[in-house]
Amino acid sequence: MQNDDIAQAFQDTADLLELTAGNPHRARAFSRAARAIEGLEASAAERVQAGTLTEVSGIGAGMAEHVAELVNGGSLPLRDELMGAVPPGLMDVMKVQGLGTKRTRRLWTELGITSLDELERAAEADEITALSGFGAKTQQNILDNLRQLRRYESQWRLDDAWAATHTLLEALRPLPAVNRAAPTGALRRRCETLSRAEVLVATEAPKAVRDWLEDRLAEAALEDKAVTGRGTEGVPFRVHFTPPSHFGTAWWRTTGTEEHCAAVSTHGEVPTACAEETALYDRLDLAYVPPALRETGEAVAAAARHALPSLITTDDLHGCLHNHSTYSDGSHSLREMAVAARTRGYSYFGICDHSQSLQIANGLSPDSVRTQREEVDRLNEELATGPSPIRIFHGIESDILRDGSLDYEDALLERFDFIVASVHSGFSMHEDEATERLVRAIENPFTRILGHPTGRLLLRREGYPIDHATIIEACAENDVALEVNANPNRLDLDWRWIRQAADAGVLLSINPDAHSTQQIANTRWGVAVSRKGWLTPQQCLNAKPLPAFVEWLD
Question: Torsions phi, psi of 501, nearest 5?
Answer without folding.
Answer: -65, -45
